[in-house]
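Appendix B, Record 12. Input sequence as logged:
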Amino acid sequence: MVLPRHKLRGLSLLNVSLVAVVAAIAVTAYFLFFRADEPSAAATRPSVAVTRGDVVASVSSSGTLASSQTASPQFETSGTVTQILVKVGQVVAKGAAIAKVDPAAAERQLRIAEQNQIAAANSVTAADESLDDAVDAREAAEEASASPTPTGQAQAQGQTQTQNPEVAVSNAEASLARAKADKEQADQDVVAAKSAVAATTLKAPIAGTITAINGSVGSVAGSSSSTGSGTSSGSGSTSAQGSTSTSTTSAAGTGFADISDLKALQVSAAFPEADAIKIKAGQSATVTLNAEPGANLTATLASVSPTPTTTNGVVSYSATFSLAKLPANARMGQTANVTVQTAKAANVLYVPSTAVVTTGTTNTVTMADGTSREVEIGIKGGSFTQIKTGLNEGDQVELLQGAIGGTGAGQTGQGRTGQAPGGGQFPAGGGGGQLPVQRNAGGNR
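Logged structural output:
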């Protein structure tokens, strides 16, 4: 079938239009996806000047505010709780009464012990009198034996037939020794019984705030439910020890009540093993609280635990920090972020850490003219690295690894404010401040 000429002309115009549309789409795609990359391909890397200032290396972690002194006292004498004399949130002095158990059983044991003590004392008195009699009899026998008269000889023979005076004295001395030992034991039993009566009143081993009461009136409390000594919230802090025999202190939460000194809070934080080897007691630190993010608190590393903790295969070491001043609104359990200064180099040359490329033990930088130069580095902070040799102040180096800042987790580079080329001010550190960069003649960075 042959189409008319006018219909063929219509199809030709339609085909031409379709071709034109496809061509326009292709040209647009070319400029969008290919030509758009040409400016960046022609752009140069940003460059900065080698600067002089301070470089600080540090490690960081997060932890919580905890009391430096805590205690969880428990009754030493078992019994039924009859009184609770404090409430949660109450501030108590050391030695203040917290609770009481029924003293009837302890008082009964005291009465028995006191009666045994009296009986033991009477036994000592009787044994002492028996010894005196035996000594007198021995002396009389010795005198009779020394007499030349027949009467004296007869008396001596009669005493020999009944009991030897020396044996009688020896037996009396042994009886007195046993009686004295029984008396000493009876005295000790009385002391223990009195302590048991006193222990029916639980007393605070430290001054602080009652943070929890783990018992109730009518419940059975006693030393069988806990053992041990006072614990603290962090390594290096002072443990609370009971000052009298009226209570024992056990792990927090296992005693009858929990007490914490809320006026002496410290920061407890865990550091991974790679960072833990860099910190030691006495180093200065900065602490910020999530509740008060704008306030920087001065702290000192008090101690690092010698034993690790492994969680999901990650090894960490607990560190305790003492605060120079405690904020008025600080509360136990608040989240705290701590940064420990591990090294500092003052008045040294440094560059952004993103300008340094490390291959094995070799460190190089790329100069603004494109040449490579080997350098010796010193302290490496989070954003800036100390240059010991290989560069001079004012030299221009390229940033090869991206934007300034954050190449070392948990580290902070710090330095003095310096002059950028052309007179612009820039921060010489501070963990990621942006430095001004040099532009080429075409205006590209």
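Residues 138 and 165 are 5 Å apart (CA to CA).
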